[in-house]
Amino acid sequence: MKSGLLDRLVAIGNKSSDTNIDKLNQSLLIYIGLALTFGGLIWGGICLYFDLPLQASIPLGYGVLTLVNFIIFGTTKAYKFARTVQILISVMLPFLFQWSLGGFVPSGAAMLWAMVALISMITIQSTMHNVFWLMVYVVLTVISGIINSKMAAYVSYVDIPEFLSTIFFVLNISIISLCAVGLNIYFVKRHETLQKDLKSSEKKLTAIVEYMGKAIINVDKNGNILFTNKKTSDIFGYQEQELEGRNICDILLRKTQEQKNTIMRKDVTYIRNLLLNINQHSGKSKKHKIFPLNTSFSTIRIEDEETFVGVINVA
Fold first, then answer.
1. What are 99-138's pLDDT values in tens digits?
2. Which of the listed CATH numbers 3.30.450.20, 3.40.50.2000, 3.40.50.620, 3.40.50.300 matches domain 213-314?
3. Average model confidence (pLDDT) across the chain
4. Is the dihedral of CA 32, 36, 37, 42 positive or negative?
5. 78-104, pLDDT tens digit by residue?
6. Which end of the chain is more exposed for a tag (fewer CB within 10 A), N or C?
7. Domain ranges of the chain
8. Angle at 185 (CA atoms; ends 77, 84), nearest 5 degrees
9. Distance between CA atoms of 141 and 91, rounded to whole angstroms?
10. Distance from C-alpha of 277 to C-alpha of 288, rounded to nearest angstrom
């Protein structure tokens, strides 16, 4: 498969509003589906070769269900739904395949494929979802242990050569290891690349902000200062690192005394009104000098949190 086609495939669920992390998670989901489909084709082909069509239908069916899921994902862009469907079939079908072959030994512990899916998807799910699917895996493993003797009795009706179990064990251990390590290497490398790109973007943004020659400040909804530039620190007499984390009410004053109230200083409604509805403030320097200021703030969203960005000028 050409890299261009593969790139388009892993991007089928991308939306214009997706962040780089969103795109990384979605691409990892696609790679997990492709890796397990590859394993399913091998297992299905082996079963067909040894005249086990019923058993072959399970790993081959995984590929079909994955294809359908990816088509729906590409059409609807519903990532959470696609992720749930993919992990559901990735956990359930290996157990069904193991049971159909007669249990742990005849199948070469095919259930380990479900663990590959769980390990690979740790980074793209919340802790709660990871714990839930881990419990599902544990329950299915316990059930497999309970019914293993019955499955072993069933295998007498299925013509599975003894050496085939050995083949399954070898393939399971080798291919599963390759898939698990390969997927995690991919994710780590991609994450490192995104981190480098992010740092590069931050440096460029900082250079642009400093070049503008205006005092710029970024404040969260609780009034905590997230970012300032050198011009801002010059106006108030603080170092930039001294301002970051400080409450905006320490340096931006109203004429009333309400800012002395520690509760009011953290009130979201008060902070919003202070920044958006008032353009003229008094500034307070590190040396407690009071001076008039003109401000202009607007709201932006950073990681789904509303923050305020403003330009400050000495009146």
1. 998 888 888 889 989 988 888 888 788 889 999 999 999 9
2. 3.30.450.20
3. 85
4. positive
5. 999 999 999 999 999 999 999 998 888
6. N
7. 3-201, 213-314
8. 30
9. 11
10. 25
User: 68 by DSSP, 3-state: which?
Assistant: helix
Highest average pLDDT, of 68-72, 227-231, 291-295, comes from 68-72
CA atoms within 13 A on the CB side of 136: 19
pTM assigned to the model: 0.66
CA nearest neighbour of 72 among 85, 89, 58, 61: 85
Q: What are phi and psi of 285, to 5 degrees?
A: -80, 175
As a whole number of angstroms, the distance between CA 191 and CA 188 comes to: 5
Output phi, psi for 29, to 5 deg: -60, -45
8 A C-beta contact, residue 248 and residue 266: no
Query: Which CA distances in Å does 75 have to 22, 89, 289?
Result: 17, 20, 60
Segment 188-199 shows an average pLDDT of 77
